[in-house]
């Protein structure tokens, strides 16, 4: 029984999200202050709560496609999942009282979005993609918020890069999975406008991510940053271009565009952290 409750939180993903917030702290302040460590359990708990509530609303689909999941396999009851997610959400939000009002606001906003996503947004074309992209980017906003409004502004650029790059990848992933989504009864953007037009939009989002990556120039990071980030930008744009060149889901999957885009995102993040810490 206990194993089921641990499993439903997707503990590895939740812990990684909690630790990732420290990257935002480092970018905002160049160091990790003791009081910022409270954000690790905050983000981990709210992420875990989102995973639990998502499984609750997916229980009927999982009963067919993923019967080994905790709720369909009866390791966790439906009522138990609801109570558990509520406790996790409340605990994560209350811990923000040891941070500041900006972190508390983000915790409340993200909790609301995670619930809304599980209940409704995931089935809405593009809206679900926007929610996922924001939630991914908001980890860096959390890290900046602990340093106050200035830290939040400082981390806006990395959040923007993450948002647009993630949105591009989410669009391409939906275009890859049209057949499976149709079977599952989902309604995604590629089903409405087609793979080709989705590829165009995904390329545009990737371009915006690249554009955002040059905003730190206004902080005089210099030629070293330009040289490093240009490598990541080329990978991101090339990945999106490969997606743009595809006419159907099969060719898109074979192109490896989403995997390459993910690598470009991680490289951009690494370069951003190095620049923020070493160049300042």
From TrEMBL:
Location of the protein in the cell: Cell membrane
A single GO cellular-component term on record: plasma membrane
Catalytically driven reaction(s): sn-3-O-(geranylgeranyl)glycerol 1-phosphate + (2E,6E,10E)-geranylgeranyl diphosphate = 2,3-bis-O-(geranylgeranyl)-sn-glycerol 1-phosphate + diphosphate
Membrane-topology descriptor: Multi-pass membrane protein
Annotated keywords: Cell membrane, Lipid biosynthesis, Lipid metabolism, Magnesium, Membrane, Phospholipid biosynthesis, Phospholipid metabolism, Transferase, Transmembrane, Transmembrane helix
Pfam families linked to this entry: UbiA
Enzyme class at the top of the EC tree: transferase
Name of the protein in its database record: Digeranylgeranylglyceryl phosphate synthase
Originating organism: Methanochimaera problematica
Lineage: Archaea, Methanobacteriati, Methanobacteriota, Stenosarchaea group, Methanomicrobia
């Amino acid at each position: 029984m206990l194993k089921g409750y641990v499993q439903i939180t997707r503990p590895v993903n939740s812990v990684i999200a909690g630790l990732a917030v420290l990257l935002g702290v480092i970018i905002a302040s160049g160091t990790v202050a003791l009081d910022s460590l409270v954000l690790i359990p905050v983000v981990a708990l709210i992420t875990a709560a989102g995973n639990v509530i998502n499984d609750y609303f997916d229980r009927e689909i999982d009963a067919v496609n993923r019967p080994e999941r905790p709720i369909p396999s009866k390791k966790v009851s439906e009522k138990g999942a609801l109570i558990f997610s509520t406790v996790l959400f409340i605990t994560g939000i209350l811990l923000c009282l040891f941070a500041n009002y900006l972190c508390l606001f983000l915790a409340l906003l993200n909790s609301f979005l995670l619930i809304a996503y599980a209940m409704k947004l995931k089935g809405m074309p593009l809206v679900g993609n926007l929610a996922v992209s924001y939630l991914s980017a908001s980890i860096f906003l959390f890290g900046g918020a602990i340093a106050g409004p200035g830290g939040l502004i400082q981390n806006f650029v990395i959040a923007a890069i993450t948002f647009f790059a993630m949105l591009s990848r989410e669009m391409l992933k939906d275009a890859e999975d049209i057949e499976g989504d149709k079977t599952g009864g989902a309604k995604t953007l590629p089903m409405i406008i087609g793979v080709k037009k989705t590829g165009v939009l995904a390329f545009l989002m990737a371009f915006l991510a690249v554009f955002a990556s040059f905003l730190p120039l206004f902080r005089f990071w210099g030629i070293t940053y330009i040289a490093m980030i240009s490598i990541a930008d080329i990978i991101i744009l090339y990945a999106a271009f490969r997606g743009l060149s595809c006419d159907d889901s099969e060719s898109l999957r074979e192109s490896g565009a989403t995997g390459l885009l993910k690598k470009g995102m991680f490289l951009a993040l690494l370069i951003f952290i190095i620049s923020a810490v070493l160049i300042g």
